[in-house]
Amino acid sequence: MKILVIGSGAREHAIAEAMQRSENVESVIVSPGNDGIGQEFEIVKLPEFEDIKQFVENNDINYVFVGPEQPLADGLVDFLQVNNIDAIGPTKAAAQIESSKAYAKNLMKRCSVPTAAYEVFTEYDKALTYLLNCAYPQVLKADGLAAGKGVIIVDDKDEAIHALKDIMLDEAFGQAGSQVVIEEFMVGWETSIFAFSDGNSFVSTIFSQDHKAIYDGDKGPNTGGMGAYAPVEKASEYHQYVDENIFTPVLRAMREEGNPFKGVLYAGLMITNEGPKVVEFNCRFGDPETQVVLPLLKTDLNKVCSAIIKKQVEKLTLEWKEGFAVNVVAASKGYPGKYEKGKPISIPVLDGNKRCKIYYSGVKKESNHLVTNGGRVLSITAKAEALKDTINEAYQTFEKLSFEGKTYRTDIAHKGLS
Ligand code: AMP
Ligand code: GLY
Questions:
Q1: CA 218 to ligand 2 center in whole angstroms
Q2: What are phi and psi of 415, to 5 degrees?
Q3: Is 199 a pocket residue for ligand 2 (Cβ < 6 Å)?
Q4: Which of 133, 213, 311, 360 has the fewest other C-beta atoms within 10 Å?
């Protein structure tokens, strides 16, 4: 089989790698990918939906795996469906579970899924009146896609007024902020989990944990994710609860409302004193969680995807490798704010070290040498038996990586040790 993966980050690198490991997969092509991914896989540039269709038809591609949220929210899967091309990913309507926080919250309310209490506002004045009269802290969320940045936690009235102005009047997140969700602040610890869904049935993965803040100890501004680990052992006691009280009702409601979700559904959870509550849904694999979950997946990823396409997820059971995976991200200096590009990268030589793997995101080739080309540059995943050894292994390899301004957290997965 031949598979086309859409996307350009480390997540898509990990998806392509897991596909390539699968039985019956002859080749994996990534679009647009990046020059780091290009060292291992064929990469092609297919900027328009029509280009993807032509490429699929001319190259006998069996199906398209859509990695990021933007093309899903833009309706790539709907377009492929109309053209009889199989794809892994939800339609535009089902992708609203991520592309509209108001849609996701209202859906959860309709099917009594545990989540923070909330209000939705389309008018600035009404939102302001609410904020002048509520208790604090509160969480303000721009409704639409905002590259993980549209969430502001406010501790008092002044901060709230400022944040609301930013989102609704000054359009800090563009059109994403024309509608705002204001929700209760939840106290607890965070973890996430994916469900592979064919619209009728689903099967869920192990739990993982992202590290969103830029600095150690979860300090500083939120990023796209500075590292992750899996499995999160202390979350496993909630697995059945999450399947029964979160994935089952949400996926059933979407199906019954004529909007079945086909693809990978990501649930970001807060484990509170009252049990797990949903922080957010994403309509695709998480980044960097994918870089720790897929290396531990023993079941062939192509088999999982084929089951989604053929609507046979009911018959699927997932098997996992023993041990842990830890992923540490190297970012450019200044990220998530302004950062420079074009710094030459010295890549660690892995020399047959099968316990470590490099996944590329913001890199490009200049005169045959990789240089930095994004906020998150690349990440290293290590896999080992015990979590402590896995952390050590990841950081030992990470130390051998160098580029000017290399920025990273030194405490990835430490929470898993306590
Ligand atoms: P989101 O983009 O919705 O995942 O939000 C980004 C981050 O903001 C989450 O990972 C949480 O750390 C935090 N957050 C979002 N909503 C809440 C909430 N209701 N209570 C507490 N923290 C939240
Ligand atoms: N790791 C969070 C996300 O992919 O949105």
A1: 15
A2: -60, -25
A3: no
A4: 133
Per-residue pLDDT reduced to its tens digit, 282-321: 999 999 999 999 999 999 999 999 999 999 999 999 999 9
Residues 31 and 43: their CA atoms lie apart, in Å, by 6
Query: What ligand 2 atom has the least distance to the C-alpha of 11?
Result: 4
Q: How far apart are CA 221 and CA 405, in angstroms?
A: 18
CA of 273 to the centre of ligand 1 (A): 17
Token pair, residue 188, equals 């607890």
pLDDT, tens digit, 9 for 90 and up, residues 232-279: 999 999 999 999 999 999 999 999 999 999 999 999 999 999 999 999
Strands (DSSP E) along 253-304, which ranges? 262-272, 275-282
Tell me the CA–centroid distance for residue 102 and ligand 1, in Å: 14
Place of tokens 């607890």: 188
Q: Is 287 in the pocket of ligand 2 (CB under 6 A)?
A: yes
Cα dihedral angle (106, 107, 109, 114), rounded to 10 degrees?
A: -120
Peptide bond into 344 cis (omega under 30): no
Tell me the CA–centroid distance for residue 151 and ligand 1, in Å: 7
